Amino acid sequence: MATDELLHRALELLGDDPLSVEAIQRVTDPGALAESMTIAEVAELLDVSAHTLRYYERAGLVEVSRDALGHRVYDPAAVRRLVFLTRMRLSGMPMRDLQHYIALADAGDDTVPERLDMLIEHRDTLRRRIRELTLSLAATEFKIATYGGRAAPDAVDAESSE
Amino acid sequence: MATDELLHRALELLGDDPLSVEAIQRVTDPGALAESMTIAEVAELLDVSAHTLRYYERAGLVEVSRDALGHRVYDPAAVRRLVFLTRMRLSGMPMRDLQHYIALADAGDDTVPERLDMLIEHRDTLRRRIRELTLSLAATEFKIATYGGRAAPDAVDAESSE
DNA sequence: CTACGGGTTCGAGCGCGCTCGAACGCAAAC
DNA sequence: GTTTGCGTTCGAGCGCGCTCGAACCCGTAG
User: Fold this and answer.
1) Are B144 and A120 in contact (CB under 8 A)?
2) Which fold has domain B11-94?
3) What are the tens digits of pLDDT across the range A130-144?
């Protein structure tokens, strides 16, 4: 099916980078979550600070219950949501949009089309951004080549001599 | 030579997107700059505000001379530098680093190795970032597929039902 | 008993990169 | 001669996403 193809394509693009493999596992292996987690555990898992997790909660992005001591208890649903949220943040989706998205998600299935629209827009944003960065990468490599290789002295002026 | 290969690769990746073609031209066709430009012209060319150009000047990133009226006159060297600077900014290099880089550039050829180091580090940062975004793109496409296609209802739980 | 480690709430502060407003200058158009 | 338009300087303000400090609570180890 199409989704397998997508993941396969992603894996192709990512190669064997261990960090990426770990990250892909977070996509493909969501069942491996502990029954419940402390804030420190979640922070470690997602590579964010406990401060940030509390901030996300304050921002209304996720609800977290407390134990008898008043300490946060992250259930698997909360953790999965935070996995999603941190990925979206990492890829540049603004807090505002995430707050909107989460409000929609909490409003029920009727909002699926609008959520889909948001995801599609984000997908397009990501594609544009990747193109931009790819272009900048090419320009940077070009500059490194003219600088380091000294292979094309007549091309050095391509962007002046900074 | 190697630099041609890099640009060729970039063009392959970019396809026929008009915006990208325009951008590539900014890399490959630096000779087409007017003798001197006003702040409004440069702002338009680089798609930034005049405010931002003045800000960059204040930040020490570029020196710009004035005409008899005190208005800024951007000569080709300044424009080329700003092309470079805006591309670096667009690709996420912090102002701090650009200030350092420019200080090195202004200090003469002895600083070429350090500038090269900075470019190489930036290149690596870009590669990592592109990988991250590619991963997020795959995850987003995956989610769109499970949402929109309804093709894999048993996979919907991959990231809960946000 | 006390110290320590990890949690809590609250509000304030920060670093970044602009972005804007106020007050002004000059020149060409009406 | 005044209005319009584009420019100038200066310093303040803003939006974003955290990040931090203070004061406090609790359970366990030494």
Assistant:
1) yes
2) Multidrug-efflux Transporter Regulator; Chain: A; Domain 2 (1.10.1660)
3) 999 999 999 999 999
CB spacing of B119 vs A91 below 8 angstroms: no
Compute the distance between CA of residue A130 and CA of residue A88 in angstroms, rounded to an integer: 15
Q: Residue A105: pLDDT above 50?
A: yes
Check if the beta carbon of residue B80 is closer than 8 Å to that of residue B33. yes
> Quick one: CA torsion of A105, A19, B134, B22, rounded to 10 degrees?
130
Residue B31 · residue B42 · CB < 8 Å: no
Domain limits, chain A: 1-32, 33-149
CA A71 and chain centroid, separation: 27
User: Topology of domain A33-149, per CATH?
Assistant: Multidrug-efflux Transporter Regulator; Chain: A; Domain 2 (1.10.1660)
Please state whether strand D lies within 7 Å of residue B49 at its CB atom.
no
Q: Give the mean model confidence (pLDDT) for residues A149-162.
A: 47
pLDDT value of position B35:
82
pLDDT tens digits, residue range B82-100? 999 999 999 999 999 999 9
Selected residue of A110, A160, A161 to mutate for chain B interface (largest B Cβ count, 10 A): A160
Give yes or no for residue A18 having a pLDDT over 50. no
